[in-house]
Amino acid sequence: MFPVHDPDRGGAVVGFVGRTLAQGPDVPKYLNSPQTVLYSKSRLLYGLGAAPTRDALAAERCRCWSRGPLDAIAVTSATTTGGAACTWVGVAPSGTALTAGQVAALSGHAGPLVERGVVVAFDADPSGRHAAVRGYDLLRAASAWPAAAVLPDGRDPASLAQHDGPAALGRLLDAAAEIPLVDLVIEEHLASWAGRLHWAEGRTGALRDAAAIVAAIPPEQVARQVLRLADRLELDPATVTAAVLEQVSSSADRDMPAPRAVPHPARTPTEPVLPVELARADYPGPLRLYRATRTEADTDLVTRQPPTARLGTAAGLSTARGRHAPRASRTGR
To answer: What is the DSSP code string of 11-35?
Structure first.
């Protein structure tokens, strides 16, 4: 049984996590206390509220996010090689997948993640990799760029320390600082295209998928990922760079605020609408080419002639008709 401490309550024990010693088909690996008002699983981390962990984090030890209490204990017990940058402190979720509330708790009680960073060390199995990818999305939302501890297949931090010794786990954690977690995230995205990478269309789709991730990482990490993608997809680095730049441009366009709509003045019910206005894209707008009310002083909108010109034309037509009309008989016949 492992006690879970709440750092917001002075390190008081608010729940427990149990670990089975003999796994079976109907036996869970971990069993947690039920959710209560005090035991809020979505915001608590095992190891964060205990006094030794708080003291170690205050001393600016390196933080490692693991999957379970035994993994967190193994990380904290790992021995580092001489000259290592720091010693390690392990924390783990208690009964849930990684949540935004737990990320906020670690950043708030252990120093800003954006400044001090964190290493993610989850199991080397599909569920562990999925948890690591979810952790990347949550940590990136907190402006943190985590590193990844690449564990051997079938191992977690606890089993690695048990079989190979705490020093082996310490060496793996020390090397993790050079491996960004985004490496694993990109590999997981490429794995979804595995059956189509031998076709050009599949490689193009995989590149577009991965380029969207690369476009969001810090600039100093982009060149490394471009070379990795070019090698992985057998593409020219210039092609990969162009795909990343296209994603950066698309992201900038999405982030650009929409133009403000300018309200148009209301049209009076009695004012007629001209066909030329209906043809305009911004109808009904304040700009009009011609006035809609026809008066004697206005230009005629049909013939583009003033009213006097129309009268003159009408008079000329009448005169012409008068010349060709038959003369009336003088005798009245």
So the answer is: TEEEEEEEE-SS-BTTB-SEEEPPP
Distance CA 105, CA 32 (A): 19
Contact 265, 286 (CB under 8 A): yes
**Is residue 173 predicted with pLDDT exceeding 60?**
yes
Helix (H) or strand (E) holding 290: none
**CA angle centred on 62, ends 60 and 65, rounded to 5°:** 130
DSSP letter at 219 equals H
Instruction: Please tell me the predicted confidence (pLDDT) of residue 272.
Output: 59
Q: Positive or negative CA dihedral for 278, 279, 283, 287?
A: negative
Contact 188, 129 (CB under 8 A): yes
Structure tokens at 48: 């964060």
Question: What topology is assigned to 42-184 in CATH?
Answer: Dna Topoisomerase Vi A Subunit; Chain: A, domain 2 (3.40.1360)
Can you give the residue ranges of every domain in the chain? 42-184, 221-253
pTM recorded for the entire structure: 0.68
Question: How many CA atoms lie less than 13 Å away from 117 in the CB half-sphere?
Answer: 16
pLDDT of residue 290: 44
Distance (Å, whole) CA 264 – CA 266 = 6
Chain centroid to CA 110: how far? 25
- Residue 180 carries which DSSP code? B
